[in-house]
Amino acid sequence: MRTVVAGATSPATAGAAGNANGEWPAEGRRIHSCVAKGSSMKPLIEVNQISFSYGQGPSQSVAAFTDVSLRVYPGEYVAVIGQNGSGKSTLAKHLNGILTPTRGDVWVAGMNTKDASCKQQIRRCVGMVFQSPDNQLVATIVEDDVAFGLENLGVPPGEMQERIDEALEAVGMSEYRHRPPHFLSGGQKQRVAIAGILAMRPDCLVLDEATSMLDSFGRAEILAVVRRLNQQGMAIVTITHHMSEVAEADRVLVMHEGRVALEGTPRELFAHPDQLEALGLDVPEASRVAQQVHARIPAFRRDAISVEEVVAEVDRLAGSGGERRHG
Amino acid sequence: MAGDFELTRNITIGQYLPTGSVIHRMDPRLKLLAAALWILSISLCHTYLGNVAGLCVCLALFALARIPLSYGLSGLKPAIPFILILAILQLLFYGNGYGPSGQVYFHWGILRITSASVRVVVVSTLRFVEIIFAVSVLTLSTSITELTHGVEGLLRPLGRMKVPVHAFALIVTIAVRFVPTFAMEMEKMMKAQASRGAEFGTGSWWNIARRTRDVFPLIIPLFNTALVRAEELALAMEARGYVPGQARTAYRRYRAGGRDIVMFLAGMALSAALVFAPFPF
Q: Which pTM does this prediction carry?
């Protein structure tokens, strides 16, 4: 599934290399402190200290974010969270070159997003699913919509069928292939949108608040699909303001007023609810429950972050008391 | 009143009725071409008998497509006022200018009814009905998707002359795709306005000014959301590698089989017969 661009000049050696904690090494020294999975891997997406401002001219431009750095490694699950206006959505649009930074560079598999000749290749490599399920489907029939990206890439018609089948299967929408999109629910439409991206066989899927307009069922559907894709090796970058979605990620970036305010694993972040609160964010329910129970029963782990972990913890403590239920 | 809000239910664009008949399964390109030829020959046929024969063929098409005739009649209904007005005007004034020949049945002031004007009235009314039936069979037996693919396939030779055929087909597809979306949006806005006391559909049908004014509070928000949607759609298309004007491949390919060609030839023969056959009157 994954293609490595042969002979690509590594941005890590070509550009200024910084670590992902937002500390910048002195010239000549290179530190890779945050390499999630295998330190020898090249990052799939490397965002090097970029700034972006809307509008022309220095007098009237509005900075969306400044000095943001981010690396996404193959197979990684990264969440970017922040309040409205924190610049997270604008950042997402930089990951496949829809926007290019005012300052700094974004490298995707060794290609600079400013290089117009690589645009098509970058779009194939990093797929993006947007917020509104209605505003990203172009065709009147589901399978035609999935084919849209393939037609753009110039995939030979003989090969399309197989790719479309595979993509629809991956999101569990095969049986709806001949339906018009307006008969589908929001979650189903969003799954079709994901299938449209998957058919292009990207290495990374960027979800730009893809669940924010869905009901809780639709959101659960999308999260399940995304989780499965990640387990199959697809890198995921999810932009969200739902803390419960963040818990699934390997690594979280918290954006605040156009800067990366915090970065770490979900467990590290949720351990400091006061810090998050200062940034206008909340820890997920499960984490809050764990912390409050911990305050009363010190034996209870305070760093449980998901419902499953809380249940397991209750089970563990109840089990040590000798009272176990068997189901 | 409640019915006025149910816009999505009344959308007739792409009123596809899948019955799986031979007409349904015909290659959309050839079907379109045959329909165009047939309509052309109806427009050229000016005999009574020819038009009656044409009407019979149209009725046979409904049977062949296994579509109940009631669908064709419901397509006819909104056209009846136009047909009537046209018929009356032609009946009263046609004889004056263009049909001085023939027998004069009635003459009073500027009104003159002649045998020629009666012929024009009957023939044009029949033509209207035939064309509406033919178009109904076409749209009832062809999904809007097939229709756009068919048009694109027929126009493809123009692509060599740098006519943006594919872009055109994409525009049509997107327009069709968003009709239900906008209808739903309009429904939502009507309900929102009505819940704050706006009145829709209470004006009499003849009070056109009132009914037009009723729509104003919907038009501007609808335009606004349309522009927002357009912008987001453009971004999503770009993210999926769409570059305007670049060469693309096509997922859907139609290959006309033997049966399609036979049916097309039959359609051509009928069309030719309608124009060239010596109908006695």
A: 0.75
